[in-house]
Write a structure and sequence with these properties.
75% helix
Length: 409
């Protein structure tokens, strides 16, 4: 039996990347988790060198430039920071991300490996969900679901567990609708993953899941459809979505998330949204008022939790990425970070006519993250820059296809 060495190495690199991405969540609270990042990144680079042989070389792209510029802003804000060590820590974090993700960017940017990267994220989400089920205990999780009691934070924040679980399901459904070769086995993992989303009672995860699946249905295979058909599809999807939400809210296992969503709607309508929503409002107010006092460079990237502790006796980030950046980095920090999104949006729009398997799912995730960041802080998370890397590599593929199409003519 002949062994395809290159295919073997590709599989090993994918497995290593799945483990690495999973570690962002499973080992989030452990200080030694950084050594996993460094070690696995070095291993992937070594495997890549073996894979490519004499042709191996490091690739630097637009992703590096944008992420590095944000790192420079972190360093710049340290000059005015109310806690110098926090801002310097964020600068070091960005440099670590750049160094450790470069082997990944190099390997997955060599050829069209977007499908592999999406599978990495999907399987990592499944692994995190199954690990969580094992960590808490299946019986305990099921009892919490029946009792409509939310899981508490343990090895990782339950919101983070819920969100990566939601992303795994979104990617799986996207693949079911867009790939000819479908994996029924991987679909089975959606069951425990969905149970974990419900057990976390994470509003952000639930919103992400619903929004993502809605957009997947709208955008799948729509490249050649007329506008009127797309509009009808949106209307039909909206009606189906309302019916599904109304129906599932009657089941006991959905009672917890249903109650939390009601609190969220009450909060948006100016009513009492519960302790969690009220605290978030206060955090946003504190962050906004601080930004108005220090509008240009803020109080230092990574430092808003200091203000939260002083004003609210609650040591936490501001639970809103937009306000977190305005407060910590001022207008300069805010624009530098969100210039990444602006660049990606512009490029996806420029290449909207180019067909590629990964384009729509990247646009769906990008749009979902922009909405989700109203209720979470993402700029300090390793997975955020991993997703950015995916998006930039997809842009690279679209650009190559656009260039090749032009050459044909």
């Amino acid at each position: 039996m002949t062994i395809n060495i290159n295919r073997f190495l590709e599989n090993i690199i994918n497995i290593c990347t799945i483990f690495l991405f999973s570690s962002f969540f499973i080992f989030e609270s452990y200080a030694w988790g950084r050594y996993i990042l460094v070690g696995i990144s070095a291993l992937i680079f070594l495997l890549y060198v073996i894979y490519k042989g004499p042709e191996a070389k490091i690739y630097i792209g637009q992703w590096h430039l944008f992420v590095f510029m944000f790192g420079i802003v972190c360093l710049l804000t340290a000059l005015v920071s109310i806690r110098y060590s926090d801002s310097i820590g964020k600068f070091k974090f960005i440099i670590q991300i750049l160094l450790c993700f470069t082997p990944l960017y190099t390997y997955y940017g060599d050829g069209d490996k977007i499908g592999d990267l999406l599978n990495v994220i999907k399987w990592a989400g499944y692994i995190v969900a199954i690990y969580s089920m094992s960590f808490y205990g299946i019986d305990f999780v099921l009892n919490m679901l029946k009792s409509s009691i939310r899981l508490e934070n343990s090895y990782a924040n339950v919101n983070v567990i819920g969100q990566i679980s939601a992303i795994a399901i979104i990617i799986q459904v996207y693949q079911l609708l867009n790939l000819k070769k479908k994996s029924i086995v991987s679909c089975l993992f959606m069951i425990p993953t969905l149970l974990m989303i419900l057990a976390t009672q994470s509003r952000k995860a639930f919103i992400l899941l619903i929004m993502g699946l809605f957009l997947v249905y709208i955008m799948s295979n729509d490249s050649h459809k007329k506008a009127i058909k797309i509009v009808l599809k949106i209307i039909l999807a909206t009606i189906i979505l309302i019916i599904i939400i109304k129906s599932i809210s009657k089941f006991s296992i959905f009672a917890g998330i249903d109650e939390r969503m009601r609190y969220l709607l009450d909060s948006l309508n100016g009513k009492d949204g519960g302790n969690s929503a009220n605290l978030r409002k206060q955090l946003v107010a504190v962050g906004w008022n601080t930004f108005l006092q220090y509008p240009f460079l803020g109080i230092g990237i990574g430092c808003p939790h200091v203000i939260a502790l002083q004003k609210l006796s609650f040591d936490a980030y501001l639970h809103n990425n937009y306000i977190e950046l305005l407060c910590g980095g001022g207008v300069i920090g805010f624009l530098t970070f969100y210039s990444i999104y602006l660049y990606l949006i512009k490029k996806f729009w420029d290449f909207r006519e180019i067909n590629h398997y990964g384009k729509n799912i990247c646009v769906i995730l990008l749009a979902s993250f922009l909405v989700l960041e109203w209720g979470k802080v993402s700029c300090y998370s390793k997975e955020t820059y991993f997703y950015f890397m995916l998006f930039f590599l997809e842009i690279k593929q679209l650009k190559c296809r656009w260039y090749n199409d032009k050459k044909v003519y």
